[in-house]
Write a structure and sequence with these properties.
The complex is a heterodimer of chains A (787) and B (235). Chain A contains 22 helices and 20 strands. By secondary structure, chain A is α+β, with helices and mostly antiparallel strands. Chain B is globular. Classes of the chains: A alpha+beta (787), B alpha/beta (235).
Chain lengths: 787, 235
């Protein structure tokens, strides 16, 4: 078969530009698949090893203040393997030259020996000396954000007292791989810190001698966490226990799982799009190649090559294209996987990255591509194999054209002959036209999902910070306070308005389902914190019922009018039942709301507020912040502007990368489809067009016939592309639903405009190539060659 | 009495091209003998090519029977037709039908690689006077040279029958004569049964027998008492 092989290579070389287009599209499909799979596998493997080697706990619980002796009771729960009792204290950090409020969490380390669970990976420096009072190990995220190295100093305010620490080490903890402040939607490495100091030092600073307020448990293999939690909650309840959670609900772990889920969606959606386009392109190109080789197929058959041999010959051609696509895809996928892994490593705090590119993933990528390619080429291959040899020797019968319906509707003089040719060409091969339209639309769809992420995040931020949460600063108190606390704050110069809110940790129950959330009491007619319905209109706060985040209502499976049992987890620990008054739209977190006074009545603790929301004179924000920070009774101060700034700072870079990759890939697909369509139209109709040239048509008039077809297909594809984009966005969004956040399937007008522009540019580039080719059409030669 | 190679009875062929139904053969009876050089003569549309295709196993008749020695070609399935062509038949076509991406030698090798007792490609090409153009691509050869490559390709597997459809149709007189000489040479040297289609009556002079076709029927058979050499023919 050596001569046939040579023919194969030379034929491929002859259509190399089209082969290249297919290889690029196919390579992109494999690359995105491998990139997502490799990143997902690598992160999963890394997380598993880190958890294992650094003893990440299975169950977590907090209390207000429990004596250390309670630890023995916890250890005695059947199935508990190890127990880590710690003190955790909120802190505020002061940094020279950084004006924004910085909050943090200080966690105790055993004064001697190492932590039994959630052990620290020391990135730099050392652990504190036994019994050291002023030595601190700082979490890597914050240290990197501010360029703090071992030997640096840090001032922290714990329980209202300012203390100086020396940073002796920089560490990573399995508990804070995704380091995010509870209640926040996005990590803020600059304004939230986690740090560890010796237990005795923290006990003294936080008034926790002989006590703990946080416990982590590891379980014996095969022990269901729910059974241990059932026993643990009653033990901690007298000590202000807030309800234990299993690993799945641990904040860092939960965020990681949500993001891994997102990667999984990506690993499905993108390759499916790319490979279906590649299959389509293969079909088009091979269909054309085989059509031009009718007589060669005939001669091979005449000399005794069987259908199988002919089929194998063209299948091998498809195989080579797939092989090239696979090579490009594997190389690209490994490279992008490393790139994406590094990008993720700047969000996640893993000590290392175990890069995994599983041979099975590579094999499945190649197998899927081969399948897609063969299904794409199958029709053409079957035709080649089935072509009766004598039939193939005759010139192809003239294709059957018909006058199109449009021509019947429109007056004759409206349509010149070239336009008729365009319409009839399209109507003769409606499936091919449809496939081309779909191919372009898929390119537009890929671009849409690239740009959509930015749209969705902008929309979330807009909804959260412009419509719902409109205060400049928020203050949280150490303990709920009376209304006089608000008056004190209002008296600070520059404070324009103050509103108090009450937030209380509760367990909501509806039938067998229960969820731990915060129940927020907001003042009626609040100007600063509003809850919005699905059409972003402010919702009136109920006095005799609850408003639930829509997603929360879904978890609890309750509707308006259903009763929900509320179990207060702090203070008086009351139980009461309230009807659901309605749902509100929130993309970040899950919450329950009611009117402030009604909540206070239900809790029976008098008129209390736990948070104050402030509108301030922007010129005095920093002064007000520092004034508040030093007040006893203030746990923390948050700034809305800082939150927004951080969001865009954190997201901007990764969004840029995503948008760039998506635009590039979408441009590739669009160009691949359009270029092949134009190129093949030119090949199929070269004789016809050359004849027209001989009859006296200008180059422009001839090019119009090809470009007009291309333009019609492109214009038809644009609205379809919008629909495909919206549908793909919905598919992706469906994979991103979690308690932590829901991404809205929101697409901006700008996104639609950008996708349209990219498609038009790709079409223009293809059209220019066609025009260039038409200019070089050799009239005599084309007429001489036998089709 | 020479051995009968092909025997056809009542051959009918109807096929459609586009929306038109064509009756290409309307009941043909024919015997061809071993080693004979036969010319099929007739105007275009008379059914010559269809007859040749049926004889060569490229096509099956709509009705009637055709046998090649002990093979029944009219009822054979595709696989056996393929085997028949591979083992017994060489084709030469009007438009050469060379594979443009392969050189002269490679075009011949495409066939010798699947044949049982082939001549070396270079020898086959030398027989048609192209021993010095082995590595030329079709685009680098003249029409006559291309047709001679096609003949080399057809004879390289030493077939028992050589079927030629208008082998000189696209060539000028002088080049055509060289091609005919090559065919006649092969017929004499290898004893290959050779059938040549033409609508050029001049060529008929070099045949053992001339069969006239019209409207899908045989309208006459002449035996040439005195064959002329290819070199003596011109048109």
């Amino acid at each position: 078969m050596r001569s046939l092989n040579r023919k194969l290579l030379r034929d491929l070389w002859h259509v190399r530009s089209q082969v290249l287009a297919i290889v690029l599209v196919m390579g992109s499909g494999i690359a995105t698949y491998l990139m997502s799979v490799a990143t997902l596998d690598s992160l999963t493997a890394t997380r598993a090893r880190f958890y294992r080697e650094y003893a990440f706990a299975d169950v977590f619980a907090t209390a207000k203040r429990a004596p250390l002796a309670v630890g023995a009771e916890i250890t005695a729960i059947p199935g508990v393997a190890a127990v880590d009792l710690t003190v955790q204290a909120p802190m505020r950090i002061r940094l020279e030259g950084f004006a924004d409020p910085v909050r943090g969490l200080l966690i105790s380390l055993p004064d001697e020996g190492s932590k039994p669970l959630n052990r620290l990976y020391l990135r730099a420096g050392r652990m504190p000396q036994p019994w050291a009072q002023q030595e601190l190990v700082l979490g890597e995220a914050f240290a990197t954000a501010h360029g703090i190295a071992p030997g640096g100093r840090l001032t922290a305010v714990v329980a209202g007292r300012m203390q100086d620490f020396e940073v002796v080490g920089i560490a990573i903890s399995p508990e804070y791989v995704y380091q995010i402040q509870p209640g926040a939607a996005f990590p803020d490495f600059e304004r939230y810190a986690v740090a560890w100091i010796g237990r005795r030092a923290l006990e003294a600073a936080f008034g926790m001698d002989g006590a703990f307020n946080s416990v982590a448990l590891s379980l014996a293999p095969g022990t269901p966490p729910a059974r241990v939690i059932e026993r643990l909650d009653p033990i901690l309840e007298p000590w202000g226990g807030l309800g234990a959670i299993a690993r799945e609900d641990q904040l860092s772990h939960k965020f990681l799982s949500a993001e891994f889920g997102q990667l999984k969606t990506m690993a499905t959606v993108f390759p499916v799009v790319f490979l279906s386009v590649a299959a389509f392109l293969l079909n088009v190109v091979f269909g054309r190649l085989i059509a031009t080789q009718r007589d060669q197929i005939a001669i091979l058959k005449a000399f005794g090559y069987g259908n199988g041999a002919i089929g194998r010959h063209y299948a091998a051609m498809a195989g080579i294209v797939v092989g090239l696509g696979a090579l490009a895809g594997i190389a690209g996928g490994a490279w992008l996987g490393h790139l994406l892994g590094r990008l993720y490593m700047s969000f996640y705090r893993f000590p290392w990255l175990d890069f995994v590119l599983a041979p099975a993933s590579v094999a499945s990528a190649v197998a899927i591509t081969l399948l897609a390619a063969l299904s794409g080429a199958a029709f053409a291959l079957l035709r080649a194999a089935r072509l009766p040899p004598a039939e193939a020797m005759r010139p192809e019968a003239p294709p059957r054209y018909r006058a199109t319906t449009l021509e019947h509707w429109l007056p004759r003089r409206w349509l010149d002959q070239p336009t008729r040719m365009i319409l009839r060409q399209l109507s003769r091969r409606p499936l091919k036209a449809l496939a081309t339209v779909l191919g372009i639309a898929l390119a537009s769809g890929v671009l849409t999902i690239g740009l959509f992420q930015e749209d969705a995040l902008n929309y979330m931020v807009d909804q959260q910070f412009a419509l719902a949460q409109r205060n400049d600063l928020s203050v949280s108190f150490v303990e709920p306070r009376g209304r006089d606390a608000l008056a004190e704050i209002a008296a600070i110069p520059g404070v324009l308005a103050v509103e108090g809110t009450r937030s209380v940790g509760v367990r909501l129950r509806a039938g067998p389902r229960s969820v731990l959330v915060h129940l927020d009491g907001l003042p009626a007619g609040s100007r600063m914190k509003r809850v919005l319905d699905t059409r972003n209109r402010p919702r009136v706060l109920p006095t005799g019922g609850l408003l639930l985040t829509e997603y929360l209502a879904r978890i609890l499976d309750v509707r308006r009018g259903d009763g929900v049992e509320v179990e207060q987890l702090q203070g008086a620990r009351r139980h009461f039942e309230l009807p659901v008054d309605g749902t509100v739209q929130e993309f970040i977190g899950i919450n329950a709301y009611m009117e402030l006074d009604a909540l206070n009545r239900a809790l029976g603790e008098g008129e209390r507020v736990s948070h104050a929301l402030l509108l301030v004179d922007p010129r005095q924000t920093n002064a007000i912040y520092h004034e508040l920070e030093d007040r006893p009774g203030v746990a923390s101060v948050g700034s809305r502007k800082a939150a927004i700034d951080n969001f865009y700072q954190t997201m901007a870079e990764s969004l840029l990368i995503f948008t760039f990759i998506a635009t590039l890939l979408a441009g590739l697909i669009a160009f691949g489809v359009l270029y092949n369509t134009a190129r093949i139209a030119l090949g199929e109709r070269g004789r016809e067009l050359a004849s027209l040239r001989v009859l006296g048509f200008t180059r422009g008039e001839v090019a119009y016939i090809l470009i007009g077809e291309l333009a019609l297909l492109t214009l038809a594809a644009i609205p379809v592309g919008w629909l495909v984009g919206a549908a793909l966005a919905r598919v992706i969004v469906a994979g991103l639903q979690s308690e932590l956040y829901r991404v809205p399937a929101y697409l901006s007008t700008q996104t639609f405009a950008s996708t349209t522009l990219v498609i038009l540019l790709a079409a223009l580039a293809s059209a220019l190539i066609v025009v260039w080719r038409v200019r070089h059409l050799d009239l005599v030669e084309v007429l001489k060659t036998r089709e | 009495m020479p051995e009968t190679v092909f025997s056809a009875r009542g051959l009918t062929k109807v096929y459609r091209t586009g929306e038109v139904e064509i009756h290409a053969l309307r009941g043909v009876d024919l015997d061809l003998y071993a080693g004979e050089f036969v010319v099929l003569l007739g105007p275009s549309g008379s059914g010559k090519s269809t007859l040749l295709n049926v004889l060569g196993g490229l096509d099956v008749p709509s009705a009637g029977r055709v046998r090649y020695r002990d093979h029944d070609l009219s009822t054979a399935d595709e696989e056996s037709l393929t085997r028949f062509r591979r083992e017994h038949v060489g084709f030469v076509f009007q438009f050469y039908n060379l594979i443009p991406s392969l050189t002269a030698r490679e075009n011949v090798e495409v066939v010798t690689e699947i044949a049982e007792h082939p001549l070396p490609a270079a020898q086959a090409l030398a027989m048609v006077g192209l021993g010095d153009r082995l590595d030329a691509f079709p685009a680098q050869l003249s029409g006559g040279q291309q047709q001679r490559v096609a003949i080399a390709r057809a004879i390289a597997k030493q077939p028992e029958v050589l079927l030629c459809d208008e082998p000189t149709g696209a060539l000028d007189s002088e080049t055509g004569v060289r091609v005919l000489e090559a065919l006649s040479d092969v017929n004499q040297r290898l004893g290959t049964t050779t059938v040549v289609i033409t609508h050029n009556a001049g060529i008929a002079a070099m045949a053992h027998r001339v069969i006239h076709l019209q409207d899908g029927r045989i309208v006459g058979v002449e035996v040439n008492p005195q064959r002329r050499a290819a070199g003596e023919i011109s048109w």
